[in-house]
Amino acid sequence: MSTSVSARLKVTGRGIPLPGDDIDTDRIIPARFLREITFEALGKYAFQDERFDESGKPKPHPLNDPRWKGGSILVVGRNFGCGSSREHAPQSLMRMGIAAFVGESFAEIFSGNCTALGLPAARVSHEDGQAIAGLVQADPGAAITMDLDSQAITVGARRFSFTMPDADRRSLLTGEWDSTSVLLANEKAIKATATRIPYVSGWAR
To answer: Is residue 5 part of a domain?
Structure first.
């Protein structure tokens, strides 16, 4: 069995503006949903307490707004994903359709968890973040393209630069973020190495 690694070179999609700084992981996915056996159903619980009241009635929230339905790039503020280190937070957003994030800054563990899922978290200046959010507000249908190679974000005719930790960017560009695919793509080499290690060779079949 073999497969190829899944490099992330560009991400294109419509944006969803999510205003506010210091949005923590408990707001992204409340703790009571961490009891789910798998991550599969987490998408429907993302921002549950901010999107719905106790009776399940929708509240005003960008993720409930039909203008941004189907958007896949979340435009956020400063220190997004702070709080606990729960992997469920980016998992829930990915499973509701989010493919990338643009923000002023991200909590380090949240950013690392995003990279492990193949979700780029691009950092922009405060001014550029405000400009991108404003463009999305003005035209909900506008496409955002994030180019990881050139480290540029385009929204219509506007172009913005972004930063990302070198290790995260390299991992996304090479496909190394997808550890399972990397292992499968190198199956023969791994087995060959295992046969040369006495305490492993009996398992390398």
So the answer is: no
Q: How does pLDDT run across 110-144, given as a tens digit for each residue?
A: 999 999 999 999 999 999 999 999 999 999 999 99
4 in any annotated domain: no
Q: Which domain holds residue 198?
A: 10-203
Q: Is residue 45 part of a domain?
A: yes
Structure tokens at 153: 């974000």
Number of independent structural domains in the chain: 1
Q: pTM to 2 decimals? A: 0.84
The DSSP-derived string for the chain is: ---------EEEEEEEE---S--BHHHHS-GGGGG-SSSTTGGGGTTHHHHB-TTSPBPS-GGG-GGGTT--EEE--SSBTBSS--THHHHHHHHTT--EEEES-B-HHHHHHHHHTT--EEE--HHHHHHHHHHHHH-TT-EEEEETTTTEEEETTEEEE-B--HHHHHHHHHTTT-HHHHHHHTHHHHHHHHHTSTTTGGG--
